[in-house]
Amino acid sequence: MTKFDEATQAIRVDETTYDVCLDPGYQIGGPLNGGYLMAVVLRAVVDDSPFAHPVSTTAQFLKAPVPGPATVRVERIKTGKTAAFTRATLVQDGVAQIETLVTTATLTNADPVYADGPAHAMPPLEECVKLPDPKPESNMNMNAQVEVVFDPPSIGWLSGAPAGRPESRAYFRMAEPQDPDPFVLAVAVDALPPVVFSAGLRGWAPTVELTWHLRALPAPGWLTVLAGGRLVADGWFDEDAEVWDSTGRLVAQSRQLARVGRG
What we know:
The chain is mainly beta. It has one domain (3-107, 123-259): Beta Barrel (Porin). It is built from 3 helices and 13 strands, in the order αββαββββββαβββββ. Strands 1, 2, 3, 4, 5, 6, 7, 8, 9, 10, 11, 12 and 13 form a 13-stranded antiparallel sheet that branches. A hairpin with a 4-residue loop joins strand 1 (11-12) and strand 2. Helix 2 runs antiparallel to helix 3 (182-188). The protein starts with a helix and ends with a strand.
């Protein structure tokens, strides 16, 4: 079991309840990363399901849970021959923090009937760059859990020269050697800096709603994450992400709605 497996572990208490412990290693300046929180919930949902994979997840982030004990409450809505539908709630101190609807199924990684290519061509890994190590007091603890190497034009905001359009592109993997799986993909779709940074806006940008789809089981190796937005207005922005595996296969897609950065 890797550190990530332990950090997302869900222990069954009864037919509808799982105990979890939210790991401070996934804090980003205080709040816990939304992708990590989804991975915790999905551990419980998949354990409860007769199917192996979370193929569609919609999460409403009601509050920002803190590191420490919590529970996941699962409610099986319907189970069919090829898919199951579950409502799962992350609860901390008796208060609902995240509400999710999850569809589980079992993927076989059959050859696609049709497959499009990436929205953007990434440069070779050796031409990409990491962000500077954060100061310990920043609580950017997640940086130690993952490796993210960026396409340089998409992090111009770091040197005060943002691209002027919402975008973020990088190679991604867990810091501890681990082949990517659906739970790692839940982190990957929400692992990059908010795309509004490249539009010249900064600060904590809390996700309000995020939907992501597991499209295939990823091959070992680096993942490629391509993210962009269409509209930043009235204090809100959208962010779409594609995740491609080391073989060039599309393995995850996501869309989220978030608040423009504060603080």
